[in-house]
Amino acid sequence: MDLRIFTDYEKGFGDLNGEFWYGFNSMNCLTQTGQWELRVDFEFPNKTRSYLHYNLFRVGSATEEYSLTISGFTGITPTDPFSTHSLNGLKFSTYNNDNDKSSNNCAKQAWKAVNNGGWWYNNCWHINPNCQYNYDETIHVGGRWYTPRWIEMKIRPFNCTPQ
């Protein structure tokens, strides 16, 4: 993983056949109309899978620093890490654009990794799916820390039933 600056996350980056970040400029445009839901799938090192599902997902504008709107948790995990760690309403942070609520820059200090990723950090240590894989734990769910082998975040219009 390369060190990414704030404008990288705005524009998007990666490979559609591998790791890919869609880009906040496009995500904001897409989620401003209608209601969107989010599903986060992940797989643990022992090959078990889990997911988080939210009935409401929206990314704010550039002037709002791409703030996160998220609610309506369902899923097969015992707790909701996005709500438990108060990510709703937070602005996106990177090492060169510190918007988190911590006195430290979470994107620089999270997990002591060299290549930290941007995220909607509250107080740094509870969820960080964009950090370097297998460096340290990246998600806190149900009182336990996990390091998923992979994570996918997917959105679609709310209550969309494929034909």
Write up what this structure looks like.
The protein is an alpha+beta fold. It has a single domain, classed as Alpha-Beta Complex (Gamma Fibrinogen, Chain A, domain 1). Helices cover 13% and strands 28% of the residues. The chain is built from four helices and eight strands; from the N terminus they run H-E-E-H-E-E-E-H-H-E-E-E. A hairpin with an 8-residue loop joins strand 4 and strand 5. The longest helix has 8 residues, at 24-31. The chain starts with 5 loop residues before the first helix and ends in a 6-residue tail after the last strand.
Features:
Gamma Fibrinogen, Chain A, domain 1; single chain; 8 strands; alpha+beta; 163 residues
CATH topology name:
Gamma Fibrinogen, Chain A, domain 1
Q: What count of domains describes the coordinates?
A: 1
Determine the mean pLDDT.
Answer: 81
By DSSP, the count of extended strands is 8
* Rg over CA atoms: 15 Å
Brief overview:
This protein is of the alpha+beta class and 163 residues long. The protein has 4 helices and 8 strands, in the order H-E-E-H-E-E-E-H-H-E-E-E.
Write the layout of secondary structure elements.
Elements: H1 6-11, E1 13-14, E2 20-21, H2 24-31, E3 36-43, E4 49-59, E5 68-75, H3 81-84, H4 106-109, E6 139-141, E7 144-146, E8 150-157
Antiparallel strand pairs: 1-2, 3-4, 3-8, 4-5, 6-7
